[in-house]
Every structure is written in structure tokens, then in C-alpha cells.
Write a structure and sequence with these properties.
Layout: E1 2-3, H1 15-27, H2 38-58, E2 66-69, H3 72-83, E3 89-93, H4 98-108, E4 113-117, H5 127-133, E5 138-144, H6 156-165, E6 169-173, E7 192-196, E8 208-212, H7 252-268, H8 270-289, E9 294-297, E10 309-313, H9 318-329, E11 331-332, E12 334-336, H10 341-347, E13 354-357, H11 365-384
Parallel strand pairs: 1-11, 3-4, 3-5, 5-6, 6-7
Antiparallel strand pairs: 2-8, 7-8, 9-10, 10-13, 12-13
Helix pairs in contact: 1-7, 2-7, 3-4, 5-6, 8-11, 9-11
């Protein structure tokens, strides 16, 4: 089997991730911060060490400014619904995932004004278009770091400078880039960073997080209120981080796995992992573009491109191609709109969508060669019908 669906969830995971999670379930298993016994203390230590690893990865000075959520979607909802209110203006791009667009459309009905800045059909964004969209009531600019459809990397650092120059908050949806692309929240001028734990960080599903620059939390209400293990004598939610936003028993076994995945990325180096994926992506792009009847979407500069590639074969629907790849060649991929209809409208592939191939760190060059050959056979077979 060849797994090329890492943009949805990375697989396989590093062996250490499996071992850490198994060890927690077998030998620790307690709730962190809820008891004083050694198992609870150990569970709390595991969570803090996960925060430390992520803080190191993103160049965050204070690990306690990382809020753990169940996924990037919850992190984005926490930020968007906490920051934006009736009369506020928000700017985003036409390449965003529904985890941004759906909350924004819901808030639009409650008086939030939205400007969607158009990207090119390749997914490229002109930072000046963002600056021209800023208004006196602009509260937030929110962009994905890279498209989950075509992998195009947006000019985050440039937009961050523009946002700070105008006194506007800047949030980045880094679901696709964490772990496989270097991120520095300070040099990129990122105020809020939403991230997924089960993709480039090689953790399990059900973990993610949100980084908040100091002071921002004062204006963001929690999504959930409840027990935090701290200040239990009060019936009011704590106002300090991370407890303000982390009510209820956490997914400690998942966070143990996330911490192990983050340490794996640190040991390899995000830049090194990026270079490996660039090589795989270039080989895949070159091979697909050489096949008659195949259309590849997005840019061709792998320095501005993650290991996410969308294509179509003339005369076949994306779902038909994906089915043939799996049934005929045991290649796992994703077909359709990828929860990003705005991106497909920008690319001109709405409503049918595309076939998406997303290699990862554990993908081999042989996997890429076999995939190119499989697509070639499928395309040639269709032309003979």
C-alpha cells in the first residue's frame, strides 16, 4: 500500500509516538492537575513537556501561551468567535478551508463584515491586495499558511508586517505547515497560530492547539467553561493561561503522542523535513505534468509549495481516478473538494474538485515512481475507451 493522504492525516507515525501513547495508557493513565498523587503529577508533566516542545518548534517564549484543543478547527473557532463581534471587519483569502469560512459566514449573519481577497488560480496571494482591503473597522486578518488543495504557501511574513503596521490582529491557520515548514511566530509577526496535531506534527487525531500572543486573551472569551483543576474554590472561570481555555479532562494520551511527534520533528529539523518533501513533490509534479490528459493545478515552484498536489484526468471524475488508484494500485489519496470550496472556485475546479496526492516524511521515491506510472496507465486506459 502507498499512502498519499498526509494532508488529511499523516501516516504512519514515528515509532516513538506509538510507544509513548502505549506507555501512558498502561502505566500512567491519570488525569493531570486533578489530584496530588504521583500519576497525576506525571500526567501533568507530560502535557507541559508537550507545550515546551511546541514552543521550541514555533519560537514561542512562553509555553503556557499554547492552548490545547481537539483540533485546528476548534482552535480557529475559539479565536474567530472570541475576537469578532458585530460591526467588526475581517479579511481572509479565497483559498481558505471551511474551518475558517464556515465560522466567518455564521458570524456574517450576526453583523461581522467579511472581505475575501482573491488569489490567483495557482493559489498565489498579493500582500498588497490584503493591505488595500483594510478598513478603519478591520479587526483581524486570517489566512492559511498553505492551501490544503494545491499546497501553495501564502506570504505570511509579509502580510504579518502589513497587519502590525495597521494595528490589525493577524491569525494563521497552520494546519498544513506545522512540522514540515519552519514557523517563527515572532519573525512572521503572527499574533495567533492555529495548528493541527495529527498532520505534520505526527501526533494522533483529536489534538491541536492555538498560540495567543501576550495580551490577546483579555478580549477572547472561552468556548467552554468548566473544571480546570485550578481555583476550584471559585465558580468563575480562571482568567490566566492556559486554564482559561482548557476546561474538562484533557486528551492526555493524545497530547503525549503529540509531544513525541513534536520532538521527532525537532530531532529531524523542520527545514530538513521540508527539503525532503520538496524533492518528492518536484518528482511527482514533473512526472504528472508529462502525462497526456493530466492537468496539474497550482504553482510549480516547490520552494513555495508544500507536498500537496491536485490534478485531474480528462474524461474521468476525481472519484473515479481515486477509486482506480486504490483498487488497481493500492494507492490511498483523496478526491473531491477537500472541505475548501472557495479554493476550488478560485482554481476553476468547482464543483467536481480534484484528485489530491500528499506525500509525507515516510513516503519513498519508489512510492512516487509507482504513483506516476499508475496515473499514466489510468490516463492511457481512458483514452483507449
Amino acid at each position: 500500500m502507498i499512502y498519499l493522504d498526509n494532508a488529511a492525516t499523516s501516516w504512519p507515525k514515528p515509532e516513538a509516538v506509538y510507544q509513548v501513547m502505549d506507555n501512558f495508557m498502561r502505566h500512567i493513565g491519570a488525569s493531570p492537575g486533578r489530584s496530588g498523587h504521583r500519576l497525576s503529577i506525571e500526567a501533568g508533566r507530560i502535557i507541559y513537556e508537550t507545550r515546551e516542545a511546541l514552543a521550541q518548534l514555533f519560537s514561542i517564549d512562553d509555553p503556557m501561551r499554547i492552548i490545547f484543543t481537539s483540533n485546528a478547527t476548534e482552535a480557529l473557532n475559539l479565536a474567530l468567535r472570541g475576537i469578532l463581534h458585530s460591526g467588526d471587519h475581517v479579511i481572509t483569502s479565497s483559498m481558505e478551508h471551511n474551518s475558517v469560512m464556515r465560522p466567518l459566514r455564521a458570524m456574517e449573519r450576526k453583523g461581522v463584515e467579511i472581505t475575501v481577497v482573491n488569489c490567483s488560480p495557482e493559489g498565489l496571494l498579493n500582500p498588497q491586495d490584503i493591505e488595500r482591503a483594510i478598513k478603519p473597522n478591520t479587526k483581524l486578518i486570517t489566512l492559511n499558511h498553505a492551501s490544503n488543495v494545491v499546497g501553495t504557501i501564502l506570504p505570511i511574513a509579509e502580510v504579518g508586517q502589513i497587519a502590525h503596521h495597521h494595528g490589525v490582529l493577524f491569525m494563521v491557520d497552520a494546519a498544513q505547515t506545522v512540522g514540515c515548514y519552519p514557523i517563527d511566530v515572532k519573525t512572521m509577526n503572527i499574533d495567533l497560530l492555529a495548528f493541527s496535531g495529527h498532520k505534520g506534527l505526527y501526533g494522533p487525531q483529536g489534538v491541536g492547539g492555538l498560540y495567543l500572543r501576550k495580551g490577546i486573551e483579555q478580549g477572547i472569551e472561552p468556548l467552554t467553561y468548566g473544571g480546570t483543576g485550578s481555583h476550584s474554590e471559585y465558580e468563575y472561570q480562571p482568567d490566566f493561561l492556559p486554564d482559561k481555555y482548557e476546561s474538562g479532562t484533557p486528551n492526555t494520551v493524545g497530547l503525549a503522542g503529540l509531544g513525541s511527534g513534536a520532538r521527532f520533528v525537532l530531532s529531524q529539523g523542520a527545514s530538513s523535513m521540508q527539503r525532503k518533501e520538496e524533492t518528492l513533490t518536484q518528482s511527482l509534479l514533473d512526472g504528472l505534468k508529462a502525462i497526456p490528459g493530466v492537468t496539474v493545478y497550482g504553482g510549480s515552484d516547490t520552494r513555495r509549495h508544500l507536498a500537496v498536489i491536485s490534478f485531474n484526468i480528462a474524461g474521468l471524475t476525481p472519484s473515479e481516478v481515486a477509486m482506480q488508484l486504490e483498487e488497481g494500485y493500492q494507492i490511498m489519496c483523496r478526491a473531491g473538494l477537500h472541505c475548501s470550496p472557495a479554493a476550488h472556485k478560485t482554481m476553476g475546479t468547482f464543483p467536481q474538485g480534484t484528485v489530491r496526492l500528499s506525500p509525507g516524511h515516510f513516503t519513498s521515491h519508489q512510492d512516487i515512481e509507482i504513483t506516476i506510472e499508475a496515473v499514466q496507465k489510468i490516463a492511457a486506459g481512458k483514452r483507449r475507451w
